[in-house]
Amino acid sequence: MEKNKSYVAHAATDVYDQDGCLLLAKGKPVTESLLKLLAKRNIDIKMIISEETEGKNNNEKNLEKTLNENVQEFLLKIKGIDQFFYKKVPELIEKIMINIRENHYFNILLNILCDRIKWVYSHSINVSLLSSFIGYKLCLSENDVEKIAIGSLFHDIGQILIPSEILNKSSALTKNECEIIKMHPHLGFD
C-alpha cells in the first residue's frame, strides 16, 4: 500500500454473531473500534481493503463513519438485552440516514457537529439510540420512534455555537464558561 493514499476496509461478506443475527452487512465500512469489539466476541470478519474514492465528500464520510461505529458498538452492547430492538436498529438507522440525506438543513447541522465536536455527535447518536429503545419499550408507533430518534440526534445542536476553546478545554471551566455552556439548549432551540 502506498503511504500517501487513503485506504478503507469494507466487510467482504455479511457478518453474523453466534446466534445468526446480522451484525454488519456486506460492503459496510469496518473501523478499528469495530474490529476490536468483534475480536472480543471471537467473531471473524473477512475484509476488502481498497483505495478511498471521492464518491462522497469527506464530511458525509465522517458523518456516516461515526454513525456506523456508534451503532455497531451499541448493537454489540444490547444484543443480549433486547432481541426485538437489536433487530430493529439497522432499519431505524437507515430511515434516519435517509431523512438526513433528504433534509439539507439536517445534513449541514450534523456535519458541522461531527466536524467541530465529534464527541458530542457520538453522544447524540447514543442518546438517539437509547431514546428509540425507550420509545419501542413504551410501544410507540414506528413513526413516533423515528421522530424521537431524529429529534434526539439534535438535542445538543446548540453546542455548535459555543466557542471551541470552551467545549474542548481540558482544565476546569470558569463560572462564566459554565454559564456559556448552559446556554446551548436555548441556542439550539433558536
Provide keyphrases for this structure.
190 residues; mainly alpha; two-stranded antiparallel ribbon; globular
Question: How would you summarize what this structure contains?
Answer:
With 190 residues, the protein is mainly alpha-helical. It has helices at 32-40, 58-78, 83-102, 104-116, 118-137, 142-153, 164-167, 175-181, 184-189, and strands spanning 7-11, 15-16, 22-24, 47-51. The mean pLDDT is 77.
Main β-sheet description = 2 strands, antiparallel
Identify low-pLDDT runs.
none
Biggest β-sheet: strands ordered side by side in the sheet: 1-4
> How much of the sequence is in beta strands?
5-15%
**If you average the pLDDT, what whole number results?**
77
Give the % helix.
55-70%
Distance between the termini: 48 Å
Task: Walk me through the structure.
59% of the residues lie in helices and 8% in strands. The chain has 190 residues and is mainly alpha-helical. Strand 2 (15-16) and strand 3 form a beta hairpin. Helix 2 runs antiparallel to helix 3 (83-102), helix 2 packs across helix 4 (104-116) and helix 4 packs across helix 5. The longest helix is centred in the middle third of the chain and has 21 residues, at 58-78. It is globular, with a radius of gyration of 18 Å.
